[in-house]
Fold this sequence. Notes:
Layout lengths: L5 E3 H9 L3 E8 L5 E7 L6 E4 L7 E2 L2 H9 L7 E5 L18
Parallel strand pairs: 1-4, 2-6
Antiparallel strand pairs: 2-3, 3-4, 3-5
Amino acid sequence: xxxxxxxxxxxxxxxxxxxxxxxxxxxxxxxxxxxxxxxxxxxxxxxxxxxxxxxxxxxxxxxxxxxxxxxxxxxxxxxxxxxxxxxxxxxxxxxxxxxx
Length: 100
């Protein structure tokens, strides 16, 4: 990811409110956390959501990220999800869960 291509929370809120977000990409990183990559209507490429301190904004779970997204004022655009198969998370052995 190109760290110079960043958007902060206030900018993202403004872009969502003004329908300037074309797509939100939820990406699971190697640590198993989730981060946002944003495609806007008036800039080329993908932009990473960052914190006030300039670090990539991460969520430990997908449900927390979804709750966060629901707080934006305005209609959310298309959302894509990319899961990382090489996370550090331990896989649950098949005998510890049941398929229904």
